[in-house]
Amino acid sequence: MCGIIGYIGPKQVTPLLLEALRRLEYRGYDSAGVAVLSEPVTGEAPRELQVVRCRGKLSELEGQLAEGAPVGHVGIGHTRWATHGRPSDENAHPHRFRSVAVVHNGIIENYLLLKRSLSDRGHTFSSETDTEIIAHLIWEELAQVEPGPDRLLLATRRALKLVEGAYAVVVLCTDTPDEIVCAKSASPLVVGLGDGENLIASDVPALLPHTRRVIFLEEGDLAQLTRSRVRVVGLDGIERQRPVRQITWSLLAAEKDGYKHFMLKEIHEQPRAVTDTLRGRLLHSPPSALLDGFEIDPTQVRRLFILACGTSYHASLVGKYLIESLARIPVEVDLASEFRYRDPIVKPGDLVVAVSQSGETADTLAAIREAQKKGAQVFSIANVLDSSIPRASSHSLYTHAGPEIGVASTKAFTTQLIALALLALHLGRRSGNLSEEAAADFVHELTALPAKLSQVLHTAEQLQQLARTYGHARDMLYLGRGPQFPIALEGALKLKEISYIHAEGFAAGEMKHGPIALIDEGMPVLVLAPHDGGYEKVLSNLSEVKARGGRVIAITTEGDRSLTALADHVVEVPAVHPLLAPVITVVPLQLFAYYVADFKGTDVDQPRNLAKSVTVE
Ligand code: M6R
């Protein structure tokens, strides 16, 4: 998830690009850059591309530009959230090849293949990114296209036909200085319609100081922007008519995409985040998973540990169920903060998987260093590219959730579950414990998850009602069995951290061993009861709660007939593979916590006493 801006018009472009990037910085902030077409010194003098880019936040770029900013009226800018290639000056956008400069948001799945064939044709590259190949491809196509008014549009169209994956791309070319071309597939792009000027951006906030008239580009659209005109065509070259919309949101609301809080926006981003995390990693025939080049031979793994903190620890607990079920490899899950202080028995041949959204959590980092000291190999699952934990690991698999701004982790959690499911599938196939048929079914179920996530988001209104009903509770219990037990822990953590209501998660079977003493009319109990192997047992636990006067909210699979009579409220979620059900059942719990906090008026995105990334012990 990166921020993109492009401008063509009468204004000085560099300050305009910087202001727009400032408004897009919430989309990524590991590097930034601009490319500006120089003004002709004399009538026919060729234009030049002036590119300034660097690692770090936008303020770094502003510092560089203070020493001399490019002058011109046509330009593109980018603020990056790295997916391919660590954050560095070289990997910062715009990427340029000869006359062509591009900025890009998305993931090009077949970039290695394309890069290899470009190399075979003599191209050399100056970055590790997937984006750079787009500039090379467009340049090659330009050489094949006759000069004419649509030359850049045609070359971009032809180049993008070779590309598989997600992209929002904006192109500038010195040969065609009076236009900008852009294209969208899976990543957002919005055209801003001005008076004698036009803009393109990955999100509305960047456009608001200039215009409120916009066109949201749709899948497969390309747009050609001149000062006075915007044309939209498809990849087939056929003109497309897109409606012009008037934006009425305030700037702050626009940054949050119209949502009241970043947390709510991030909950709703989960279908996209899961799609991006799966992108290019599933194999269909034979069914398996790719771990970004990391091959694990299970016969060489002595013991497997997963280490993490907080929400990432809950994802890791689900990971244990996934790996043990699919690969039949025993897994030990540890809180990183405990592991490092208990002189853990770790030896060469052990594989440690570190799970972290930020990649900077001090306890997790220290735990993997401890494991490495004892000879273990470390593989990390992280969201922030090139952060300390992946840098300290020998291999990493990134969750492509994009920046998570709300302190309460939501989309990072579901994408961690996906990464762990990919790891389990990989190990299952390589250990020989997962049949081809079962693996094919699992791949199919993974592929269906984004649509099911979109469906489960429709429970939002019901959860908002429930939040109003139970928002005054002092305490709350969450119960689950098997892979739903970590979801009970996660649901309770979400409620605690943003609403300040005391909440506990328990394995449902443990109720009778103590916690049942807490049950009375004042104790709402949320029970996770999807249709899986533990369903019947959970029904008994639920009945025990009801018999003691507890009020029950049950999360179950759609079409359930038994729970309506037993529970006070039933929230139905789509049917899904039992090992993947946590990806779905956690969403109503996130929504419930969010709406309770909103109802109570707490600071949802920055709850008291918490920080997004805990870099101290
Ligand atoms: O960045 P990490 O995933 O390593 O962070 C671990 C925890 O600090 C984090 O999950 C924390 O528990 C969240 N606030 C939960 O919402």
Structure report:
The chain has 617 residues and is of the alpha/beta class. It folds into three domains: 3-248, Aminohydrolase, N-terminal nucleophile (Ntn) domain (Glutamine Phosphoribosylpyrophosphate, subunit 1, domain 1); 253-434, Glucose-6-phosphate isomerase like protein, domain 1 (Rossmann fold, 3-Layer(aba) Sandwich), CATH 3.40.50; 456-604, Glucose-6-phosphate isomerase like protein, domain 1 (Rossmann fold). The chain is built from 19 helices and 26 strands. The protein is globular. It binds 5-amino-5-deoxy-1-O-phosphono-D-mannitol (M6R). 5-amino-5-deoxy-1-O-phosphono-D-mannitol binds next to α9.
- Determine the number of helices (DSSP H or I, runs of at least 4 residues): 19
CATH class of the largest domain: Alpha Beta
What is the terminal-to-terminal distance? 30 Å
Helix-and-strand structural type: alpha/beta
The coarse overall form would be globular
Mean pLDDT level:
93
Q: What bound compounds does this protein have?
A: 5-amino-5-deoxy-1-O-phosphono-D-mannitol
**Beta-strand fraction estimate:** 15-25%
Helix content: 25-40%
- What is the radius of gyration computed over CA atoms, rounded to a whole number of angstroms? 26 Å
CATH superfamily of the largest domain: Aminohydrolase, N-terminal nucleophile (Ntn) domain
